[in-house]
Write a structure and sequence with these properties.
Length: 356
């Protein structure tokens, strides 16, 4: 983190708000830990992951007043042959954007982000907020977060499940499926399941290196889960927790094992893990209302909260639509589904690095 911003905004009776890019990681993370709206994706350890795995430029903007940090904005810049130049906070992840103590700091961070974008000829800045921060900006609310308030015990959580889910868990256990959890030792099985499932859906997948970097950056906040059949992983996930909540950013299961309810057993074991750790909220990750993954999460009792992705865009620039439902991508998705798995695993990471 190098360089300093200008001091041109002040609070009444207090020091000016300055935008800095040289705040030390420990000071940055101390602010993230005390800011109620900050997520684990605001932590400083994501910056080297974005730089080293994907080669993207990262600007860590901190608003300070005197010696005190009063807001942060991690910003990742793309120079994509597919989508042009733009910035996202945070790409590949569910949450990000501006976290600040007050409107003045929040406004100053947006001004700084726009300045950084214009200096790099970026066409837009995408801020992945839960609630709206900037009524003057364009917004998309096409996704929702799916969260579940956890019961105080595994037994009470089990009782809260509907009969269908409980029967599916029992069926999976009787079918010889077993559950394990760990770290990098389970990464190969996790990535095998994810790569195959995403190929079948027509979507490029991150390389193993990215997930290894996440586990390395957050060794005390991450875990890999796997459901095995005869020693082979057939469903798997990578979870990350922060404060009282745990989230599932990545999870997949092999379609051939859907009749054995492998995916249901996977989620039940993640829920048990979260409760045993004393966590209070289970975040199933973002979904599109009405789609299959949305219905799957809803059956567990998850409640939908609209997300607000806010955009500063240069004049005349339309909001991006990178959704698989976009007709522009239908031919590419159909082709991807027909490619051999070895091919998609080899070239997928080069493509997905451009799709935040």
């Amino acid at each position: 983190m190098t360089g300093r911003g200008k001091t041109d905004v002040s609070r009444a009776g207090g020091p000016a708000i300055e935008i800095r890019t040289d705040v030390e990681p420990a000071e940055w993370d101390a602010y993230v830990d005390r800011a109620s709206e900050a997520s684990v994706y605001h932590r400083s350890a994501w910056a080297p992951v974005m730089r080293e795995v994907f080669g993207h430029e990262v600007r860590c903007l901190a608003a300070t007043q005197g010696a005190r940090v009063v807001g942060v904005l991690p910003l990742v810049f793309f120079r994509s042959p597919l989508f042009g130049r733009f910035a996202v906070s945070m790409p590949f992840l569910n949450y990000g954007g501006v976290v600040a103590d007050d409107e003045a700091s929040r406004g100053r961070l947006l001004e700084a982000a726009v300045g950084e974008a214009r200096a790099r000829r970026a066409r837009y800045v995408e801020l992945r907020h839960v609630r709206r921060h900037y009524p003057g900006l364009a917004v998309r609310s096409h996704k929702v977060a799916m969260t579940l308030a956890l019961g105080p015990s595994v037994e009470e959580q089990w009782s809260a499940l509907d009969r269908k889910l409980r029967n599916q868990v029992r069926k999976a256990e009787k079918s010889g499926l077993t559950a394990v959890s760990g770290g990098v030792d389970l990464l190969d099985g996790f990535h095998d399941v994810l790569a195959r499932n995403m190929r079948d859906l027509g979507t490029p997948v991150h390389g193993r290196r990215f997930f290894a970097a996440v586990l390395d950056a957050f060794p005390n906040e991450t875990r890999v889960f796997a459901i095995r059949h005869e020693g082979r992983a057939v469903a798997a996930s990578l979870v990350i927790w922060h404060r009282e909540g745990i989230e599932v950013p990545w999870a997949s299961s092999l379609r051939a094992y859907n009749p054995l309810c492998a995916n249901v057993l996977l989620y039940w074991h993640m829920l048990r893990f979260a409760i045993d750790r004393g966590l209070m909220v289970f975040d199933f990750g973002r979904s599109t209302p009405g789609e299959g993954t949305y219905q799957f999460k809803k059956q567990w009792g998850a409640v939908a909260t609209p997300l607000h992705w806010e955009y500063w865009a240069d004049e005349g620039v339309a909001l991006p639509d990178r959704s698989p439902t976009n007709a522009r991508f239908s031919a590419a998705i159909a082709l991807w589904r027909r490619l051999p798995l070895a091919v998609t695993r080899a070239i997928g990471p080069r493509i997905v690095r451009e799709i935040p």
